[in-house]
Specification:
The protein is mainly alpha-helical and about 250 residues long. It has 2 domains: about 180 residues, Helix Hairpins; about 60 residues. Helix content is about 90%, strand content about 0%. The protein contains 4 helices and no strands. Helix 2 runs antiparallel to helix 3. The N and C termini lie far apart (about 155 Å).
């Protein structure tokens, strides 16, 4: 009885859970539905346990009633037997025999009721074991329900965390595709090229200025040479090139 009840409940629970897992889109809704279904299964099991306990109590009541009736018929048999003994002692043999007959009828009923009560005992013992198993099974189901509720909170939190992480990863992927640092690198290269160009222009400007000063020096030298040539022709050599005095 216990195995059939909880086996059917477990089968229903597995069917509901598998259906939810196959069609699950929102883990939180799925787990909430699973808890509702499992709660309904527990309620169904509680009804079955209550029915089994009710049947047990009825059998126990029948057993107690049979035992009480057996005791009562035993009391009646004793009373009839005592009356028969009293009548027989007074010489009323026929009447005594009638009361002995009543005592035998009462004893027959007592024996039948005792046998009936004895017949209830194995069923009561078996039903008590079933009830204990059902109660234990119910407690286990309720414990599983609490475990499921706790697991639900954990899984919902993990699902939310996973969604948040996936959103971050998706954002990182988009940043990787449109990496602004690559634009910075290109801009840096452009700046470096401009800097190199400025350095080159500076070097070119410096070379040009030196050559201009060198040209000025060359012009000064040519002018000096021309001046000395004119002095020679005029007969007055510059002091720098006059002949040394005669000793």
């Amino acid at each position: 009885m216990a195995e059939s009840i909880f086996g059917r409940v477990a089968q229903l629970a597995r069917a509901n859970i598998n259906a939810l897992l196959d069609s699950a889109e929102d883990p939180e809704k799925m787990l909430d539905q699973m808890i509702r279904d499992y709660t309904d299964n527990i309620r169904e099991a509680e009804d079955a346990v209550a029915s089994t306990i009710g049947n047990l109590r009825m059998v126990e009541a029948d057993h107690a009633e049979a035992e009480a009736a057996a005791v009562e018929w035993g009391r009646k048999a004793a009373a009839a037997s005592a009356k028969a003994d009293e009548l027989r002692a007074g010489g009323g043999t026929a009447e005594a025999d009638r009361f002995d007959g009543l005592a035998k009828v009462a004893l027959t009923r007592q024996l039948s009721l005792e046998q009936q009560a004895d017949g209830y005992e194995p069923a009561i013992s078996q039903q008590n074991e079933v009830v204990e198993k059902l109660k234990t099974g119910l407690e286990q189901m309720k414990g599983k329900l609490e475990e499921l509720r706790g697991k639900r909170d954990e899984l919902v939190a993990r699902a939310k965390m996973a969604r948040a992480q996936n959103q971050v990863h998706d954002a990182v992927k988009q940043v990787s595709v449109l990496d602004p640092t690559s634009d910075l690198a290109r801009f840096e290269q452009k700046v470096r090229r401009e800097e190199a160009r400025a350095i080159g222009n500076a070097e070119l400007a410096s070379s040009s200025l030196d050559s201009q000063f060198e040209s000025l020096d060359d012009l000064a030298d040519h002018a000096e040479v021309d001046a000395r040539l004119r002095a020679l022709k005029a007969g007055s050599a510059p002091a720098a090139i006059e002949a040394p005095p005669t000793p």
